[in-house]
Description:
- It contains 20 helices and 26 strands.
- The chain is α+β, with helices and mostly antiparallel strands.
- It folds into 3 domains: 162 residues, Penicillin-binding protein 2a (Domain 2) (Alpha-Beta Complex); 332 residues, 3-Layer(aba) Sandwich (Beta-lactamase); 56 residues, Trypsin Inhibitor V, Chain A, CATH 3.30.10.20.
- The strands form 8 sheets. Strands 2, 3, 4, 5, 8, 16 and 17 form a 7-stranded mixed sheet that branches. Strands 10-9-21-20-19 form a 5-stranded antiparallel sheet, with helices on both faces.
Amino acid sequence: MTYRGKKDRVRVFLVLSLGVLIWGIVVFRLFSIHVLNYHKYKKIALNQHLIRMNLEAERGTIYDRNKQVLAFNLPTNSFFAVPGQIEDQNLVAKRFAQITDCSKSEIRKKLNTKRKFVWLKRKAEKEESKMVSSWNLEGVFFRKEIKRYYPHYPLAQDIMGFCDIDNKGLAGVEYYYNRFLSGVDGEGVFLRDALGNSYSTEEYPIIQAKPGKNLVLTIDINLQSILEEELKKAIEKTGSDGGGGILMNPETGEIMALAFSIGERRSALPIKNRMISDNFEPGSTFKIVTAAAALEEGIKRPEDKIYAENGVYNIRGKFLHDHVPHQWITFEEALVFSSNIGIAKVAVEVGEEKLLEYAQRFGFGDKTEIDLPGESRGFLPSPGSLSDYTLSIFSIGQGVSLTAIQLINAYAAVVNGGFLMEPYVVKAILDQEGEIIEEFDPKVKRKVISQNTSRVLVDFLKGVVSYGTGEGLGIEGIVLGGKTGTAQKPDLVKGGYKEKEYIASFVGFFPAEDPEIVGLVILDNPQGKHFGSQTAGPVFRCIASKIYSLQKKPFTTAEKDTTEKALEKDHQLDLTLKGELPQKIFLKVPDVTGLTAREAAFILSSYEVNFRLSGSGIVAEQKPEAGTLVSQGEVCVIKCVPR
């Protein structure tokens, strides 16, 4: 073999050796990746395409006492970005600035991150979802989320409250019972392919979410509607700064309706419930405490005579006045005619110690423990702090502050035989199958007065409506009882009281023989006529008339019986029973346009509205229109078109 041949063989050997070495390195590397370090590199690869997502639990449904749906959930699209997959950040920022409150620069800043998941738009409206889908943006994806929906909004929003973007309760029942309603979120880890499709993997099993519990409230949405409608009319008519009302079952403490309004429809959701959190001086409605104490302690009998000083009473150099002067009146008439002087004289006989004791017995100065957040205690004077004059004005509702829920709860005790109840708004907690998990029974806090004292006070309060300060507020065919109240508003800056600003109120109940509902109406600073008998009283009268028509027998009038007309006529209306007409129930048609056929069917069913669907896809038209009142049994026609 020549030298040249040997040299060629060496070259071939070196080339082959190098090839074998390279191949060996490749094989070893593959072996290392696929065998020795398989799990390590698999995890790295998966993490580049994995997205960990919270699986939102279905929030519980809320019903009224008659199983009308007050709050439920609807599926919505929420859009997010995977920044590493976005080709044009400026385009994405420009598009989403159109449908969010963020500027383009703010969105670009969000996208300029190493994070794999960035929210762009949560819980988009249907039109917004269509718009985003039409953009077909690289690196932008969506996931289904749950949006809280209140089909009767804004009815009962003071009670219902609301949720944040993550469906956590922030006010009202939604907040107080959040731990029952919210359920338990699940978790899923998903593999996302190049097309944006998500897949679950065996390595990351999905932890399913557990839905929340359902609530049945004590609220009757029909009574709630009546209350809110009449409050709104009264506020507009009287020029009041605001007003509120509560309807309650005096036997059980169940809240049937509760609302506060500032006249114009609220643009913001209520953060606090002013009927349980705001304190005010009650004025003459507080006189019931003095009357109850005097009767229960045997200090006064209804027929006992009191000299009312002809309207002006000098108490150690300070003067107490009556709106209408009286001379000799009975103890009963002192309450019926709301004589400040008569009640003040009785209070002096009762004495500070006993009067404060009965105020506390009726629940003033302490929380009622209603199952809503933000309740205030109010204020009572401390023992030993009252002079003859301050004791006198305390007995007529000045120098004391309380909440609306405290006041109506005290009157419930007056008319139910003397039992102070614990008011509540939730009747039961249900599971997803509708089975009762927990049912809430009425709770008696304590016995305040005797049955006999209760009966006498009920007679007094019937007299208020039949011949006293509330004369003319009665309804033919039903006996009402109640108490008017007018209180000057305290001047928190200068001290004392404002000259021309008042709180007008009326607490009433019906039927007086066996009260089923006790109600409170409060108007804040009515203009012009400001007495409770002229403003709040007519509102209660109309509410009671409508409720009685709804539940018992239908009443009619020559003119439609409304708060506005009652106020125009200074509460002198003539109600006449027109035979035994069958009760007719009207339902308000909800707005279902833009919803899917399935969603529309669910909402209409929750309203107990009969309907007929035509077509499929999205609701394009509905007849009658949203907000129309239809009689029970009338059919609503829903026309759907393809998506």
